[in-house]
Design brief:
single chain, alpha+beta, six-stranded mixed β-sheet, 7 helices, about 20% strand
């Protein structure tokens, strides 16, 4: 079985958070800390540009964010967790159930939850800074042959490309840096600080 870079990266992380018990009975939109308010109209997410930042040029050059589970088949127009579970199981039969849940916990929000207007945060490997953008088109498949590996995409209007993490508190910096997953959500406090930063150039909440 051939692993893409992203899949290898996630398999190495399969023992991190992401069990069904932690994520909730279906796909984990319950935050155990109690601060995640999924009723909010706008949310913020981390999407990493590859294991070593190899997709940074693609992200910022084409105005997209993409994930590279490229062995998966193209999904139907209406993606469901049932389809994703079956596709992951058939594509990666050698993975443990825990690793498959880990994949599901990242692919499901990327394909079904990230919406237009949501904030996208990319920790940059090349500079150790961050990029922040706004989703302008939710999940779609780019079927151009040259884009096979990164065909699972969202469109992003990048507001800042290479800003210092020092613009945020050490708590927020540590929180963003602590997630090794390709796709993960950020809590409401971090969303509010990102929102403030884009609007006022300060992450302070008044």
């Amino acid at each position: 079985m051939r692993f893409s870079t992203e899949v290898y990266d996630q398999k190495m992380d399969e023992d991190e958070t992401g069990t069904e018990e932690e994520l909730g009975p279906e796909h984990g939109w319950k935050d155990a800390s109690g601060v995640r308010l999924w009723e909010s109209n706008t949310r913020s997410w981390i999407i990493r540009a590859g294991k070593g930042g190899e997709f940074e040029d693609l992200f910022f050059g084409q105005g997209v964010a993409a994930v590279a589970w490229d062995e998966l088949p193209n999904p139907p127009d209406q993606v469901s967790d049932i389809w994703l579970r079956e596709a992951i199981a058939s594509t990666y039969p050698d993975l443990t159930d825990h690793a498959r849940r880990n994949f599901l916990g990242q692919l499901s929000p990327f394909m079904t939850k990230i919406s237009e207007g949501d904030y996208i945060v990319v920790p940059r490997n090349s500079s150790r800074n961050i990029a922040i953008g706004i989703c302008t088109r939710s999940f779609y498949v780019d079927d151009r042959p040259e884009e096979t590996r990164t065909r699972f995409r969202i469109d992003v209007k990048w507001e800042v490309i290479d800003d210092s993490m020092s613009s945020f508190s050490s708590k927020v910096c540590n929180y963003i840096a602590s997630s090794r997953r390709t796709v993960s959500w950020l809590d409401d406090d971090t969303f509010q600080r990102i929102d403030a930063y884009l609007k006022t150039e300060s992450s302070r909440l008044y």
